[in-house]
Amino acid sequence: MLKSITLCACLAAASFAQENPLSASFKMAYTQTKTSITRAAEKMPEDQYGFKPSDDVRSFGQVIGHVADAQYMFCAPVLGDSATKPPGVEKSATTKAALVEAVKTAFAYCDKAYDAMTDAKAVQVLKFFGRDNTGGGVLAFNSMHNYEHYGNIATYMRIKGVVPPTSEPRPAATKKSN
Q: Residue 44 — φ and ψ, nearest 5°?
């Protein structure tokens, strides 16, 4: 039964990618950033959440909070959700638990925008920061913004002797037995 469900999900994803290759590529890039940032937030020790490489930059925790807030700024316009505003996590949350939960919740909100995106919707023009942009352009910008800050996150982790998730060794592939 589980194999059938998994097969159906894989076939549905493959079908969507064939019908919507542009929006599927936006979602793939976003999923990579979401996974990397979430894993980094979970991996960094709590006592390092206040770490700043210099006084004039955000702390590790503030970067995580900023990424969480930004998901709402990028995805609300794509969803046509003018009522949802960033929750101010960067300025209010200070503990690892609160920041990890906030970034997961923010990504779950943004998942809705990527899940609903189609190639036809990707080219529709919307207002973003007072300018015209396409829905696909806004989602692509979100992934670029996430990766920009993942670069900060990875650097902070390296300075503290923590291996960033994208630099961890990949698990060895298991061989199938006949």
A: -65, 130
> What does the CA dihedral 129, 146, 85, 81 come to, rounded to 10 degrees?
70
CB 78 within 8 A of CB 139: yes
Instruction: Give the fold, CATH level 3, of 20-164.
Output: Four Helix Bundle (Hemerythrin (Met), subunit A) (1.20.120)
pLDDT for 8 equals: 53
pLDDT value at residue 2? 47
User: Is the Cβ–Cβ distance between 99 and 42 less than 8 Å?
Assistant: no
Record the pTM.
0.86
Taking only the tens place, the pLDDT of each residue in 37-77 is 999 999 999 999 999 999 999 999 999 999 999 999 999 99
User: Among 139, 122, 129, which Cα is nearest to 34's?
Assistant: 139
Q: What are phi and psi of 157, to 5 degrees?
A: -65, -45
Three-state DSSP at 98 gives: helix
Q: Can you read off the two tokens belonging to residue 137?
A: 């352009």
Instruction: Identify residue 160 by its one-letter amino acid code.
Output: K
| CA–CA separation, 130 and 67 (whole Å) | 21
